[in-house]
Amino acid sequence: MNRPGRLLTAAALTASLLLPVVPVVSVAPQAYAKDEPKVLTVAVAQSVDSLSPFLATRLLSTSVLRLTYEYLTDYDPADAHVVPGLATKWSPSPDKLTWTYTIRPDATWSDGRKVTAEDAAWTFTKMMTDPDAATANGSYVTNFAQVTAPTPTQLVIRLKSPQATMTALDMPIVPKHVWEKVGDLGSFNNDKTFPVVGDGPFLLTDYKADAYVRLTANKKFWRGAPKFDELLFKYYKDGDAAVAALQKGEVSFVHNLTPAQANALADHEDIKVNDAPGRRFYALAVNPGARAKDGTRFGDGHPSLLDQRVRQALFHAVDRTALVDRVFQGHAVEGEGYIPPRFADYFWKPSPQQKLAYDPQRAAQLLDQAGYRTNTDGRRLGKDGRPITYRVLCHATDPNDKAVGQYLKEWWDKLGIGVRLDCLDNVTDPWLAGNYDLAFDGWSVNPDPDYVLSIHTCGALPATPKDTGATDNFICDKQYDALYARQLAEYDPAKRAALVKQMQSRLYDLAYMNVMAYPNSVEAYRTDQIASITTMPKAAGNIYGQDGYWSWWSAEPAEASGDSSSGLSGGVIAGIVAGAALLAGAGVFLGLRRRAGAEDRE
């Protein structure tokens, strides 16, 4: 890859302004007194989109719901293999079209009612029959033919065709006796009446938009109660303010740190910085011409971006190596395919001949070939004769978006193309309306990548322009869809991985998504408040946004430190070992799974 021989002054200046060095503030130890309520406060910069399991897609929202409602299966925190959750065991029929799950008898809803197979059957059936209920996670049940509960502890799912993700159905199971009373699931956000009835390690007890989400330890949780009495997600629009709150002991944990913030916290005696490979990708998404399933076009994306040559030209003019070095300052890996290298079985990278490497000369040639010539002022003209300026949706709370945006301005200016950064607190509304040209994008990928692959299928498009689909950025390609269907039906892990890599190759060639980097999870917590906490994976893993609830459920308050380096009790480890044995005995595909506690546009 070619790299520029000089530091891009404007971009570097912008990056330095966005990533200030935060002074270290000394505070008194904050260990909890013996009888004091133990509150773990997590600083977050993302707003909640919904607290309904049927509607939520943002990382914060799905993380909260992961703590509130159990899934059928969980992922081992050490290496992400599938272990029992609400289901203690499962088995497929010989033709793989009928799956039977045994629901644990010791799970209880917070209102005292037993959790039964009927709750799961109702949840899945509702998603199959109500389009609003399928908004967030509908791709999981598209292939379901029927879901029944013959007994309180037996759940039976009959499929239309084989489905490789049956041990990785990452959907919250809700209490039927509560949710069957909800009228319009499309408008119900589950955020008015507290406490919310749940069966997870924490119970949702209070919420104020753009302020906080409060959860209380569930003393009846079947795996055992959390050690902290409360878990508080506190909203900070400004990252530096969140870091200052951590230094003062006002919050226990901060994630998504900039390099400068992480460096400033590294020498603080009561703060531990965790810097580990992440499960997210950081990308630039192109508006491919927003459309609905009924064929209606909408939005106002620039028509030049419908040309694949133009899209590839823009990506040839992005130096990913420079972004990793200068914006992420080494706390990231250069982007390649759609799935981060952390998931080695599915990680893909283009061949040297296929790669859209940094090559400004090639970018200019492609634009010329596409008919977008420059005028006497060196500006590229659209088909309407007007200079091209692309609007790039940018998250106002993300300094990386702003810093990368400055580089795009410089790089694309050399091609004769203008850039206007639209940095907003709310990018969702213009995004869903298709009113953008490009946008900074990012998703958390689960051990099984099916979900993040499904959001680029034609089936994920909204039914009409007025509806909300599961699509990320309106991509619809028949060849990609055919590959998606094949990987979903493939039980052989190696063959399925090969199909997933073909999907990434197709997505790469279409150039609607430019994965620029795989950022590390850079986060920090106060050791005088949190004595120990589980990372996932155990070796070099993240804390925030895990594929499960392990971090917050396992966290030990400082005054109860003791010998708890792993954060997992012996009983839980025994349960995980037993779960692994069940899977081996059943001989089923260990389906890794989708966008953990996350889904997750940020």
CATH class of the largest domain: Alpha Beta
User: What is the oligomeric state here?
Assistant: single chain
Say how many strands there are. Answer: 21
Largest sheet: 7 strands, mixed
Overall domain count? 2
Q: In percent, how much strand structure appears in the residues?
A: 15-25%
The percentage helix is 25-40%
Please sum up the structure shown:
The chain has 602 residues and is of the alpha+beta class. It is built from 16 helices and 21 strands.
Question: Can you walk through the features of this model?
Answer:
This protein is α+β, with helices and mostly antiparallel strands. The protein folds into 2 domains: 39-277 and 521-557, D-Maltodextrin-Binding Protein, domain 2; 280-519, Dipeptide-binding Protein, Domain 3 (Dipeptide-binding Protein, domain 3, Roll), CATH 3.10.105.10. It has 16 helices and 21 strands. It has helices at residues 9-18, 59-68, 117-129, 176-179, 239-248, 259-265, 308-316, 320-326, 360-369, 399-413, 428-433, 450-454, 478-488, 493-510, 550-554, 570-586; strands spanning 39-44, 73-75, 82-84, 87-92, 98-103, 144-151, 154-159, 202-208, 212-217, 230-235, 253-254, 271-276, 280-286, 332-334, 389-395, 418-424, 438-444, 513-519, 521-526, 530-532, 556-557. Strands 8-9-10-1-11-19-12 form a 7-stranded mixed sheet, with helices on both faces. Helix 1 packs antiparallel against helix 10 and helix 7 (308-316) runs antiparallel to helix 9. The protein is globular and about 75 Å long. Residues 1-29 and 560-602 have low confidence and may be disordered. Belongs to the bacterial solute-binding protein 5 family. GO terms for molecular function: peptide transmembrane transporter activity.
